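Researcher: Good morning. I'm working through a list of sequences from a screen, and I'd like to move beyond sequence-only analysis. For each chain I'm collecting a predicted structure so we can compare shapes side by side. This is the next one on the list. No need for commentary yet; just the structure.
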Amino acid sequence: MFEAIVGGLTMLLTPQAMLFMLIGVIYGLMVGILPGLGGIVAMALLLPFAYGYETAAMLALLLGAHIATIWGSSVTGILFKVPGAAKSLALIFDGYPLTQQGHASRALGASATAALMGGILGAIFLAVSIPIVRPIMLFLGPSEYLMMALWGLTIIATFSEGSLLKGLVAACIGVLIAFIGMDPVTATPRFTFGSIFLLDGISFPVAMIGLFAVAEMMKLFVKGGSILDRDVTEQRSTVLDGVKDAFRHWWLVARSSLLGVWIGVLPGIGASVGGIAAYAQAVQTSKTPERFGKGAIEGVIAPDATVGANEGGGLMPTLAFGIPGGESMAILLIAFISMGVTPGPQMLTSNLDLVFAMMWIIVLANALTTLIGLAASPYLARLPAMNANIMVPLVLSVCFIGAFATRGYIEDVVVAAIFGGIGYIMEKYNYSRANLVIGMVLAEMIERNLHISLTLYGDSFIFTRPITLMMFIFIIVTTALPFYRNWRRNRAAAPAAGGGQ
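Model: Good morning. Structure tokens for this chain:
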């Protein structure tokens, strides 16, 4: 094992591989900042240029670009409430309020450092867990995946400020929007109204760009001024404060990283679910959950640590079984085929050097991304101070270009504009846009695994499969926890209110 670790590092420490990694990281940061693109597009565009070179150099280019998009996607989410990709969605809930309060540098520093720490923990997991993960993966079935998706819905209560009913309505609308297109099991068209364009469904990145980015620019245009609160004239914290925050909350980073690794190992779930789940566990385990959504630095640290660790976990099923751990890993499989590398159990024996080379790529690319990110953060943090007359057309142009680039359909630009109007109305009447997005993210996963579970295990599968039953009980407990905390808080406040009369 030790010889393979050293051999993997030796493969990577060549001038060509290190140059390719640097190119990949810089390119990934640029692509990650563009809304709607992210790591999948970055890797797909690089694929034609990655042939004919050293294997380690090709992997350094592809994985370096993909890893850099993690922090690149975080930048626009934190600064402008424009998620660069689905995996950065959870960052806007507290990252953007921090920017409005003059703590953009701190949020960017915490984001970059948490992603680095998560990436290192994910790489360590990849190194030590190769012998033990395979039986665990084979033990879980669609009913367990269903329970994980249902657990993700428990976060709805977290974002339903003032009215749980409004939160549930928003989530149900998200589920209905996700049902537009072809049924994943029967291939029956649903809610398409005869439109060929709608057969593919509503693109999640496009809807997200509209709901948050376009809606936020509409709100800024109406308000005028800049993104910063009126009493904020300069940055109130530094990048170093954010770095210290990430290390101060090391236990949250460790928990979130383990969650990211676990979600990465499970095929087909992806980093977008991981970011939302990380935010949920950060809120549910916090002693002061009321701070979240108003500028809690933990709301930035937890999602980025999870997404950073997700890459190490996602490589496990990709390498061990040839099953993509996420959409970006499917691109990596294509690259493997072009290199003549066959993923599978034999890769963990005959090509172990290559496995550890990828582990080192994750570590070094994360470190390089963080160094560049920390150096650029003080300058990026100045952008939200721009006047709305400059900011709105600039951001809208980038958003609509990103919406078109996701699939190459001009109709997606129209969809982004429509969802911008929906997002603006929801914000005005206090309907949670986050809950709508959560409904969209989890709907297909819930529907697909519910169909398979009913077919394989029957109507009472929840009670006949022990692990599923345990996870179901866990969902009930975590759902009840916020309500129990509110009940205790109200009960403690009642005597104080009575004494004051």
